[in-house]
Write a structure and sequence with these properties.
Blueprint (H helix, E strand, L loop, with lengths): L5 H25 L4 E8 L12 E7 L6 H17 L17 H10 L6 H6 L5 H7 L3 H12 L2 H21 L5 E2 H11 L10
Helix pairs in contact: 1-2, 1-6, 1-7, 2-6, 3-6, 7-8
Length: about 200
């Protein structure tokens, strides 16, 4: 049996979780929602990284009332970020109309719906992964999620690097450090934020 490389698994999972959570954060900001904090932390209970992720991530939003459309955009943005950082879909970062690929991205995400978290499913308006298979994904909030991330690449990658670095530090020191909403807002002011003007929001 092949030996398990815990360090490599942790590095892979930390990057993946940072990308996913950064997608949620950037979409939330672009849609005008408040972000309280974001974190990516080592999952210390994992014995076998072949079966469970070695890292956990979460974004906490403000308590303002958001429309179902806005919630769907934010909830789907983590999955969208996963697609955008796949080499096969990297062209979307420079495509003049990346949201025009929403139907294709919808198919990809629906095909992997069982990997979506319960909170992402609920936020996108689904009770279960099975419902995603049955009903499919609406291309409008997916298109908005794609646009929110590809319009803000500097902010997106800054958040990815921050979350990944904090996770690495937490693994080494045992001290967890969330990325605060204030730090995120300051970065958005420094790096620029392109908000989404979406009628349905």
């Amino acid at each position: 049996m092949k030996a398990i490389d815990i360090d490599a698994a942790h590095q892979r999972d930390a990057r993946g979780a940072a990308v996913h959570e950064a997608g949620h954060v950037v979409a939330a900001l672009a849609m005008g929602a408040d972000v309280f904090e974001a974190y990516v932390l080592p999952n210390i209970d994992v014995a076998d990284p072949r079966e469970f992720k070695t890292v956990l991530g979460r974004v906490t939003l403000g308590q303002e009332i958001r429309s179902p459309f806005t919630n769907a955009v934010i909830s789907l943005a983590g999955e969208v970020a996963d697609v955008l950082t796949d080499d096969d879909w990297a062209f979307l970062w420079i495509d003049p109309d990346p949201a025009g690929w929403a139907d294709d991205v919808a198919y990809l995400i629906a095909d992997e719906a069982e990997t979506m978290s319960d909170s992402d499913l609920r936020g996108a308006g689904f009770a279960s992964a099975g419902e995603v298979y049955e009903k499919g994904l609406d291309s409008e909030p997916l298109g908005a999620a794609i646009a929110s991330i590809t319009s803000n690449p500097l902010l997106f990658w800054w958040i990815v690097d921050e979350l990944e670095g904090r996770c690495r530090e937490a693994r080494l020191t045992g001290r967890n450090s969330a990325l605060s909403g204030r730090s995120i807002v300051e970065a958005s002011e420094r790096l620029g934020l392109v908000p989404l003007a979406v009628g349905a929001a």
